[in-house]
Amino acid sequence: LIENGADLIVGTHPHVVQDVDQIGTVPVAYSLGNAVSNMSAANTQMGMMVFLRIVRYHNGTTKLLKPEYELLWCSRPGGYCSNYTVLPVEEFIGTRALWHGPWEYDKMIETRKRIKKILDNE
Predict the structure, then answer these.
(1) In what order do the strands lie in the sheet with 68-75?
(2) For the segment 23-33, what is each residue's pLDDT rounded down to a tens digit?
(3) By the 8 A CB rule, do 74 and 84 touch?
């Protein structure tokens, strides 16, 4: 894709969040995971938004800044509430008492820990 002129690459199919990388000057998000899903296997309830910022200079040239990401959690019915709900993970840290099923909160926190280790190259 890069050899054919791609400025960025965003993948989606594997149902799990995968690494964000850069090949030369091209940002690559290998997989955004699931936004809404009925899956419950490890890592399949986590999704990701990637934020892309493009700077345009006075002379007309552009530059793509380093991508940033936000993790999302797809809570199944009985987890956070009685419906499917997509939650921005960082905003829901420390809210275990609000969840209908606190076990799912625990799963979100553990999944976040595993995924951030991959994304932050720890």
Answers:
(1) 46-51, 68-75, 85-88
(2) 988 889 999 99
(3) yes
Q: Classify burial at 114, counting beta carbons within 10 Å of its beta carbon; exposed 0-12, middle 13-18, buried 19 or more.
A: middle
Separation between Cα atoms, residue 47 and residue 108, nearest integer Å: 11
Strand pairing category for 9-10 and 46-51: unpaired
For 55, the enclosing helix (H) or strand (E) is strand 54-56
For 32-48, how does the pLDDT look when each residue is reduced to its tens digit (9 = 90+)?
999 888 999 999 999 99
Q: What is the pTM of this model?
A: 0.87
Beta-strand pair 20-23/9-10: unpaired
Residue with tokens 């926190």: 109
Q: Is residue 69 a contact partner of residue 51, using CB atoms and an 8 Å limit?
A: yes
